[in-house]
Write a structure and sequence with these properties.
mainly alpha, Beta Polymerase, domain 2, three-stranded mixed beta sheet, two-stranded antiparallel ribbon, 7 strands, 6% strand, globular
């Protein structure tokens, strides 16, 4: 069994609500437990505070080496302080948008945080504040934020030709988190139930903040990783997404029939099915309701480095080829694009080289 596979199993056991404390304590008490590997992979997966909080909730912090306990405690405390500031910012933005009658809904981590899903707000690491805004009000919302100290980051010429799922990222010195105003949840993937209009129409209010419906929240949480973060393409898994999914279903206290109904709808979606098959490699939290089969490619990638490298190289090459073909077609058909591309050719080629170099580095980190 590879070290990566063993490390992932330990992380999953800590996060899971089905793994017993007795079993977990025996695992973590073993002399050969690699805490360094747990910290490395936990950091990459953005679940270090989550792991610390779960161990605290399970009353197993005494199993941590003393120096590691202090380190994780410090990171978790900092994240708790940051999330408190993010919550304050969310409330300010929510009040501002309501005052100006902008139809909106907070997404992903901020939606979960504002809804009170976590026992400890330090459990979730959050980057930006993502907000889905009604299409006709995007410009109004964008201008409104600029009037309240937010400034958009500079964009390259490609933004004039290719539509992104959100407007330029907006930062400010006044608040702790940047904001991304979304026009849609995905660039190419289309699912009627996750359209801009239906997500906004189905929104609910939690603690005076608009958040997606439970169904939309679960689906977007998973599909954001599988599609936007290439989890499906690279057969990778993100434990932050895993924990969010567990928490959403656990907190909503759905009965077995209701959860089964939710998963019946998921089984016809290859991305959602793929996510749960990967999850089934390590966790038993959903095996009662979902296909108990595991994702064999994902398992082999974790167990054997050669398969891991070959799969990532093939997936990356195929993805890059698709992008180049699309850009080439656009270059042939659009004169203005050709002109702008030539003017910005040095940056484009520099980014291309960085993209290739970055892949060589990150391919060792992806699942």
């Amino acid at each position: 069994m590879s070290k990566r596979f063993t490390t992932y199993q330990i992380i999953a056991d800590i996060l899971s609500f089905t793994t017993s404390n007795i079993s977990l304590e025996a695992t973590l008490s073993a002399a050969d437990v690699d805490w360094d590997a747990i910290v490395v992979h936990g950091s990459r997966q953005l679940v270090i505070p989550t792991l610390y909080c779960r161990l605290k909730q399970r009353q197993l912090l005494h199993l941590l080496p003393e120096d590691l306990d202090l380190y994780l405690h410090d990171i978790t405390s900092q994240n708790r302080k940051r999330n408190k500031a993010i919550l304050e910012e969310v409330m300010i933005l929510s009040t501002l948008f309501k005052k100006h009658h902008i139809e909106h809904v907070f997404l992903k981590g901020t939606a979960l945080l504002a809804s009170g899903y976590y026992e400890d707000i330090a459990e979730r690491m959050i980057g930006d504040i993502d907000i889905l805004v009604a299409t006709k009000q995007l410009d109004k919302a964008f201008e409104l934020l600029q009037q309240h100290s937010f400034k958009p980051l500079p964009q390259n010429f490609g933004s004039h030709y290719f539509e992104h799922k959100h407007l330029p990222r907006m930062t400010t010195n006044k608040y702790i988190a940047a904001v991304e105003l979304h026009r849609k949840l995905f660039v190419t993937y289309k699912k009627k139930e996750l359209s801009n209009a239906l997500v906004l129409n189905n929104k609910r209010i939690q603690n005076d903040v608009f958040v997606p419906s439970t169904q939309n929240l679960i689906e977007h949480n998973i599909l954001n990783h599988e599609i936007n973060d290439d989890g499906y393409r690279y057969h990778s898994m993100n434990f932050r997404t895993v924990y969010d999914t567990i928490i959403i279903l656990k907190t909503n206290t759905l009965n077995n029939t209701q959860i089964s109904d939710v998963f019946v709808q998921f089984k016809n979606n290859k991305y959602l099915t793929n996510f749960f098959k990967k999850l089934n490699v390590f966790c038993d939290d959903f095996k009662l309701f979902f296909n108990k089969n595991a994702n064999h490619i994902f398992t082999l990638k974790l167990k054997y480095k050669i398969i891991h490298k070959l799969w990532l190289k093939g997936a990356f090459t195929g993805h890059l080829f698709t992008i180049i073909c699309h850009r080439l077609g656009f270059w042939i058909s659009n004169r203005a694009y050709r002109k702008d591309l030539w003017k910005d050719r040095h940056r484009v080629f520099s980014n291309y080289r960085s993209y290739l170099s970055n892949f060589k580095f990150t391919r060792t980190q992806k699942n």
